[in-house]
Amino acid sequence: MAALEREVTARVVLQQCLHAKLQVKPPDKDTDAEWVEIQKGMIIYICFFKGSNKDVIPKIVNSLLNVKLSESDTGKHVSITELPGDVLVVPQATLGGKTKGRCMQYHSNADKELGMELYALLIAQCQQELESHPKWAEGGAVLHFGTYGNRQVLQLNTNGPYTHLLEF
User: With contact defined as beta carbons under 8 Å apart, do 29 and 71 qualify?
Assistant: First the structure.
């Protein structure tokens, strides 16, 4: 039997990390660049596609925050809320790229306004969900996120390229 193709509305790459630093505001002539940092935790790279809507956000958040990807001190795989670990969300339009000849094209990505709206909803729901887990909230873990529409300058330290691709 042939598998039914379904329309992908969002693509996410999860990356376990020991430390990450993300530029959220580039420098200009009067000010230095602004950065956010996380310690042990997870980086979430996200791209929304045409056809995305706010209905997909709860499913994405539930999957991302409950997947048993993080390694505890005992070596057991646990969710980021059980670790508890920091979370860094990075908007990454390049996840929607397809090659045409020798060039990359991004025609399937959601338009900028819709992408910004969905990204803001994702951040708000992640924050709400993370704060509802006592172990995460009391453990001093943080949620930081990149700036939608800006180039994302990232410094990353990891104990292995432990990355996973999820599609919604």
Answer: no
Whether the pLDDT of residue 5 is over 80: the answer is no
Q: Is the dihedral of CA 153, 131, 161, 12 positive or negative?
A: negative
pLDDT score recorded for residue 40: 95
Cα–Cα distance for residue pair 144/30, rounded to 1 Å = 24
Distance CA 67, CA 64 (A): 6
Residue 48's φ and ψ, nearest 5 degrees, are: -100, 145
**71 membership: H or E segment, kind and range:** strand 70-71
Is 104 in a helix, a strand, or coil? Answer: strand
Mean pLDDT score, 17-38: 96
Would you say residue 116 has pLDDT above 60? yes
